[in-house]
Amino acid sequence: MTDPTLPDGTGTAAPARPSAGTARPPLFSGHHTHLWGFLLFGWVVSYADRTVTGPVISWMIENKAGFIGDTSHPAALGGLIGSMFFTGYMLTQYAGGRLGDRYGHREMLVVSLLWAGLMTLASGLAGGLIGFVVARVLTGLGEGVFYSNDRVLIITHTPPARRTLGLGVVLSGLSIGLTVGVLATPHLIDWGAGSWGMGGRAWSMPLYVFGVCSLLVAAATWAFFRARGDSPLRLGAPLRRLIAYSIPAAVAIIALFLAADAFGWSEWLTAIGSGVLFAAMVTIVVRGIVRAGHAAALLNRNVWLVYTGFIAVMWNLWFFSFWSVQIVAEAAHSSLTSAALTAAFNAGAGIIGFPVGGWIADRRVRAGKGRKPLAVTCAVVHTLLAGAFGASLLADKPSLLLLGLCLFCSGLFFNALQPIVHSMLGDLAAEEHRGSLFGLFNLVAEIGAVASPVVSGVLRDATGSWAPGVFTAAGVMAVSVVLYSLVRERIPASTA
Question: Where is this region: Disordered (predicted)?
Answer without folding.
Answer: 1-23
